[in-house]
Write a structure and sequence with these properties.
The protein is an alpha+beta fold. It contains five helices and eleven strands. It has two domains: 129 residues, Impact, N-terminal domain (Ribosomal Protein S5, domain 2, 2-Layer Sandwich), CATH 3.30.230; 64 residues, Alpha-Beta Plaits (2-Layer Sandwich). The strands form three sheets. The protein has a five-stranded antiparallel beta sheet, sandwiched between helices. It has a four-stranded antiparallel beta sheet with strand order 9-10-8-11, with helices on one face.
Length: 201
């Protein structure tokens, strides 16, 4: 996983095409649960809308296992998939988009719908305020008690965020390290065979 950007907060834009109103709402959603909750929230906010089509990239943009989309009653492949296509090419992560459509009485056709939903998402992304997400890797470290001082020093040097510390037969630590620093951290530990490092799954 690499560093990426995400929306800093919820934002909205609007587009009118042939009397149909397309309201694009974008929000930061770091996982599928928050993405699903955001979609449900928009359905509740727009109960009289004809469609609340959605797409999300939950988590890192380079992990397609956490992508999703829905046409929400529009003809198959005319809304959700084009919206996800725009999102997946944006390089953004932790992002959900709902395009709410109020039908204006003029049919757009399948090609027109694809263009309309794609344009709605592009325009929504154009106005976003973004923030950086630093990719982190979960690690597990075990060490002899005699290495506690040296290990604490290295944890500080590499800004390891400790999430759990356990004193058993050995010192056991779980934490998060910036992915870009992991290789250097592994090299810094090599002179100390009494300290072992593994990535958590």
């Amino acid at each position: 996983m690499s560093n990426y950007q995400r929306p800093s907060h919820r934002q909205q834009s609007e587009l009118i095409i042939k009397n149909s109103r397309f309201i694009t709402t974008v929000a930061p959603t770091p996982d599928k649960t928050s993405a699903d909750a955001f979609v449900q929230q928009l359905r509740e906010e727009h109960p009289s809308a004809n469609h609340n089509c959605w797409a999300y990239v939950a988590g890192s943009p380079d992990d397609s296992r956490h992508w999703g989309c829905s046409d929400d009653g529009e003809p198959k492949g005319t809304a959700g998939r084009p919206m996800l296509n725009v999102l997946s090419h944006s390089g953004l992560g932790d992002i959900s988009v709902v395009v709410t459509r109020y039908f204006g009485g003029i049919k757009l056709g399948t090609g027109g719908l694809v263009r309309a939903y794609s344009q709605a998402v592009r325009e929504g992304l154009d106005i976003l305020d973004l923030e950086n997400v630093v990719a982190k890797t979960p690690v597990r470290i075990s060490a002899d008690f005699s290495m506690t001082g040296q290990l604490e020093y290295l944890l500080g040097q590499f800004d390891v965020n400790i999430t759990q510390r356990d004193w058993q037969a050995q010192l056991l630590i779980e934490g998060l390290i910036e992915t870009s620093k992991l290789e250097d951290f592994q090299q810094a530990l090599q002179p100390y065979p009494a300290i072992t490092l593994s990535k958590c799954e």
